[in-house]
Amino acid sequence: QNAALRRGVLVMRHGERVDQVFGKSWLQQCLTADGKYYRTDLNFPSSLPRRKDSMKQFECDPPLSCCGIFQSRLIGEALLDQEVTVSSVYSSPALRCLQTAQHVLQGLKLNQKVKIRVEPGLFEWTKWEASRAIPNFLTVAELVEASYDIDTSYRGNFPLSSLVPSESYEDYGKRDGAAAPLPPLFAFPGVPGVILIVGHGSSLASLTRALTGLPSRDSGDFAQMVRKIPSLGMCFCEELKDENKWQMVNPPVKTLTHGANAAFNWRNTIMED
Amino acid sequence: QNAALRRGVLVMRHGERVDQVFGKSWLQQCLTADGKYYRTDLNFPSSLPRRKDSMKQFECDPPLSCCGIFQSRLIGEALLDQEVTVSSVYSSPALRCLQTAQHVLQGLKLNQKVKIRVEPGLFEWTKWEASRAIPNFLTVAELVEASYDIDTSYRGNFPLSSLVPSESYEDYGKRDGAAAPLPPLFAFPGVPGVILIVGHGSSLASLTRALTGLPSRDSGDFAQMVRKIPSLGMCFCEELKDENKWQMVNPPVKTLTHGANAAFNWRNTIMED
After folding, report:
1. What stretches of chain A show up as alpha helix (H) in DSSP?
2. Where residue A4 falls among pLDDT bands split at 50, 70, 90?
3. C-alpha count within 13 angstroms, C-beta hemisphere, residue B251
4. What is the pLDDT of residues B90-136, one digit of tens each?
5. Which pLDDT score is estimated for B201?
6. Is the ipTM value over 0.85, yes or no?
7. What domains sit in chain B, N to C, each tagged with a CATH number?
8. Are residues B42 and A75 in contact, defined by beta-carbon separation less than 8 angstroms?
9. Would an 8 Å CB–CB cutoff place B242 in contact with chain A?
10. Dist. CA B61–CA B17, nearest whole Å
11. Which residues 87-106 of chain B have a CB within 8 Å of chain A?
């Protein structure tokens, strides 16, 4: 069957986030005395979106690194190369996920054609938030001002106000796991094609197991599983139409493996005697 | 002094090479039974330049990975952002260096304006070549056919035929080190600006120490120093015109630090029970 006609759900994790490389205090490394952002390493993004509240809020909702943008764009280009038809895109409200969705769509040359639906229900298991609070996400208005292709008419299936800090595994399962399987959560369009869901490591594990009818894992196994999921890790579920069932199959594109790059201090390395 | 008017020499190491990520047998992973190239991971380049001799020759002269292209482009864009005027570019004949030069120039929006001069004298210390032979580099004709912006009129200062396999450290020094300091090797143009030299880890250490008058290191220290140089590691030498001397200073752009990304096996990670 032609990949373009397949009805499928592609769930992917966001790309490399700045705090993954530069630590929790990444923002302090990049602020001048009068609070202006500048990059101290070329892997920091060249600028940050404008926000009405404090820049400080980016600490709980960090952006992609330049490498994360590269990863996202590359996956989008590979999907285009495989002629995968993405008919709709849902993203976690986390900035790193929205940016991943945006750059995947750019790679697919679908930006401005397919708009991103911000779905609060896709946010990470809140127990894993270091701040023990729900981050102040950028508003739809702020995202649009920063040139993100957002579907402004979409109302989240799970409202932002219902996200609870440090939620139990059971509560997380109610919005993202076995108790909330995909078909009712996401409106499948009448046309064939792939629904792209950009979320967190947790999304890959919970959404796809729920959709294919696998039982949810206990929370310890779940945490261990999620830790193994790299940037742009992907799971793909395909519909078996006659059986009204979904199965997990190989994603339409390959995995992405690359090495790390260390900071370089010419003074200590080249000059020392 | 304005960076654009500075007379300087910027020496950089090439970007991430495929064999660094996928090992020496990378090409075997990417060939069909009838010898056609395809990528088995998205970090492999989408295609390889055409060459008259065997594809097998790429094993001794590997290309950049997609991540290496990203790194090179990012550095070029950062140099443009800092308004660095690159007046000429010299590259090692190794494919990874030529590709790095090409993508840095694209980031600088200087491709087609500044042509790459292929300088065999910039090749790595040949003792470090695993094959114990000089690789069959792509010819200038093959590079031009593959759309590389090559200065076809340039004749290497150190002819390719003079490169000796497994050369001694002393012989290496004669073409790249203290015995061959930069000014006679590279023709400084009459105009101010930066000469970009794309080479290997060894180039950073030997060329810049020679230019600034530092003594060369013994071969053990040299090897240890070179091992610390990351992809796109840079050294910058600036002219002190009144004193007719060169000094090593901070490069015009920051370093590039990013994390690794692991391959992802959805079957073992998500499906296992």
Report:
1. 18-22, 66-81, 95-107, 140-145, 169-176, 182-185, 201-211, 219-227, 266
2. very low
3. 27
4. 999 999 999 999 999 999 999 889 999 999 999 999 998 877 889 99
5. 93
6. yes
7. 3-17+62-251 (3.40.50.1240)
8. yes
9. no
10. 10
11. none
